[in-house]
Amino acid sequence: MLADALGRPLRFIVTAGQVGDITQAPALLHDQTGQAVLGDKAYDSNALRATIAKMEAEAVIPSNRSRKIIIPHDPIIYKHRNRIERCFNRLKHFRRFATRYERRTIHFTGFIHLAAVMIWMQ
Hints:
122 residues, mainly alpha, Nucleotidyltransferase, domain 5, 9% strand, Transposase_11, transposase activity, DNA binding
């Protein structure tokens, strides 16, 4: 999921539970603009950092423990990463989202669209 600076959902891609989120990050960032892209250690990859650099944005992603050369990040800006967590928490207020009642992806996606609209209207 991609969220804006206010913690509102912008884009999302539904994947299987065992798929890593970093696989969908370039697709979520396609045609986006911004000054910085915040992510946790799971999003630390050279390919994603190159995608963010093409956007002319700053990658505020802490380096993974296995990285040989640590890439510094701005810890003050990184504190705002909790806004994506707030976005997920707002979505979890909708019981259908939290428990995933819908078994089919198309139905679940439709409900996420509905919940996202309701969050934007608040």
